[in-house]
Amino acid sequence: MKNQHQPIAVEGYPFIALFAFITVVFALLGWTVITLLFLVLTLFSVYFFRNPDRTVPLEKGAVVSPADGKVVFVGTVEENRLLNCEMIKVSIFMSVFNVHVNRVPCSGKVIDQFYNKGQFVNAALDKASLENEQAGMLLECDNGKPLLVVQIAGLIARRIVTYPVIGDVLERGQRYGLIRFGSRLDVYLPTDCKVEVELGDRCVAGETIIGYLA
Q: Does the reported pTM lie above 0.70?
């Protein structure tokens, strides 16, 4: 899969190249203000698509955060798209300043997926979990428990990228996709999972343990 070792996510290359080219053109024309504007856009694109390495915890049963960002919801909900049962939902909001490469919460096999077109309301709002464009991936974890992780587009985000397909076996902390320009990830955990995060906590993708599977 893509972006396992690259310091910059490959999805960012077209943006970086375009802004860099425009910067050079306006620099050659001597248009200083516009040159500086596109230079800032070039540097921001490099920053936004950064893809740092992470130290993945080895604790048995640990579920790691799939995204950098702030926990905006923790609670028990009905998950009716794939599982049709109660699950614990942990929602993590990514601002445009967070790393946007997403990571696999637990080791396991991809057993189902879905993609829904939708709206682009502020991803920090809880209604984004149902109304926004989203892509879900259902994992059967190594202990046989199901875990659903859903990428949700936000107010500015317009492109969800997911690499795995049904049948793929993934490792905890492995990079598996990204969302461009501000978004949210929801993780649905079994109700017997021990949750380790609270509302307002800051998470680091692939490193922060959000819970332990029973």
A: yes
